[in-house]
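C-alpha cells please, single chain.
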Amino acid sequence: QVPLVESGGGLVQAGGSLKLSCRAPVRTDTMGWFRQAPNKEREFVAAIRLRDAITKYTDATKGRFIISRDIAKRTLYLQMNTLKPEDTAVYYCAASVSELLSGDINMYGYWGRGTQVTVSS
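Here you go.
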C-alpha cells in the first residue's frame, strides 16, 4: 500500500483553527479523515466523494470542520475551526476506491501515518 502523506497538525489554543492537508499519490474515489485520541478507538471525522464533493461528517465536528479536495493536486483538506480540547488526537487521512461515502474504517484501504493535533484549554 502506498501511504498517504498528511501535514498541518500542531498545537493550538481552544477556539483556534488548524488546516490539515493530505496528498494521495494514487487514484481514489472517496477520501476521509479519522482521529484517534489516547486510549480510544479510531473514529470517523469526515469524508468526501471526489467526483462531486458530496460530504459526510460526524455530529461532533459538523459545523466546525470543513472537508474539501483539490483534484488536480490530489490533495485533501480539513479546515478545523473553533477547536476544543476534546479534538486533541492523531488525525489520519484515508482513501477508498469505492464511491460509497462511509464512516466505516474498514471501507478505506489507504492510510497516512497520522498528524498530531493538540488543543490546549
